[in-house]
Amino acid sequence: MxxxxxxxxxxxxxHTVRTQDATGSRFVCNAIPPGAEPGCGYVSTGNRxxxxxxxxxxxxxxxxxLRETILQQKETIVSQQGTIKELNSKLARCEAAADVSSQGKxxxxxxxxxxxxxxxxxxxxxDPGETIDQLGKTMQSLKGxxxxxxxxxxxxxxxxxxxxxxxxxxxxxxxLRELLRQRLGALETQLLRxxxxxxxxxxxxxxxxxxxxxxxxxxxxxxxxxxxxxxxSNNAFKSPEDFKVSLPLRTNYLYGRIKKSLPEMYAFTxxxxxxxxxxxxIGTPFSYGVxxxxxxxxxxxxxxxxxxxxxxxxVAQLPLSVSDGRWHHICITWTTRDGFWEAYQDGERLxxxxxLAPWHPIKPxxxxxxxxxxDVVGGRFDATQAFVGELSQFNMWDRVxxxxxxxxxxxxxxxxxxxxxxxIDTNVEVFGGASKAALEICEDRAFxx
Length: 449
Hints:
The protein contains six helices and 16 strands. The chain is rod-shaped and about 160 Å long. By secondary structure, it is an alpha+beta fold. Among the domains are: 176-235; 243-445, Sandwich (Jelly Rolls). The strands form three sheets. The chain has a seven-stranded antiparallel β-sheet. The chain has a seven-stranded antiparallel β-sheet with strand order 9-8-7-6-13-4-15, with no helix packed on it. A two-stranded antiparallel ribbon has the order 1-2. The protein is 38% helix and 20% strand. Strand 8 (308-311) and strand 9 (314-317) form a beta hairpin. Its cofactor is Ca(2+). It holds the Pfam family Pentaxin. Residues 241-442 form the Pentraxin (PTX) domain. Residues 1-16 form the signal peptide. InterPro entries: ConA-like_dom_sf, Neuronal_Pentraxin_Related, Pentaxin_CS, PTX_dom.
């Protein structure tokens, strides 16, 4: 095209020579200045005759159109470069907004995003779903604007001289169109990647929220269950151990049952507070039966006999007297070594003995009954052996307690629940009309005395 322009300029400069005939006669044509009278008699400053022809006018007009077309295409290219820069700038703001969102998540769910100047794409919403929708709309808008630019570029005039000297419209250069398509494809890929990242972030946020809600609900349910359990266990009691079991009638259907069983033991101490005025004999304060031996451990006062301790159905008589209608604290210790036993009443040791089921281990997995003697494990009670009165603070240890510990329990100067069977409201069931009632044993004992 540059060669064409130079040739046209050369021709327009008045150097076109036209031959008239073979005799050597010539006509020299020069350009006429504006306002001059046309004709061959005009003498230029160069002392030559000049004239304009239609071909020269057409070539001059073509050059002017080419120059205007080049300028227009240059302006179009500059405008499209500005559009590409604007797209890059918006993409950078999208990336900056996504970075701010990820940093805000690492600092905590309650942190706010910072503002990064004016955003021509609109403020990014805080909700990931709204962000994804906004980015999708922005991408469609950018694609539409780029398509409009391509359509406008197709309509730009680009003059191409045909054989007849007629100008025609040519499309945008392929290189520029391909560059724009590549930039659009890259922008769309980046936006889709950002949308996928935001979708993943939204899913993670939902999962974390659901897990947190589940943990919170679980903790609340556990707390409610614990409160309900405490309400049931305490009832009217100030503390779980401040209660008594009342067995007012000598029948074979009033009794209490300890929910816990015993492990295998080679020694034990059993202590309790009891109050009874029944006669003859207070009955059976407690019994422990196992499969094959219903009288594994029994404390009983039957008829006119003294209180007896049975271990593996072997008997030892105890020097205790508790049928005066007052509260008494009694403790019984036993060890398999030589079958040695001790009997305490109100903190004082009143008797000892040995050869009570020596070297016999207490069998595990049996049933502890309050107020009845068992002929089979957990049942077949005899009304004549039933305990009549009140019981409290039934505790059992798998060792022999020291005398000082027993004295502390008897005078209410120490609190030491049993490590095998503690006296707790939830550990005691009552049946057949037996009842549980609140009792602070030390205060009630002081009132009796």
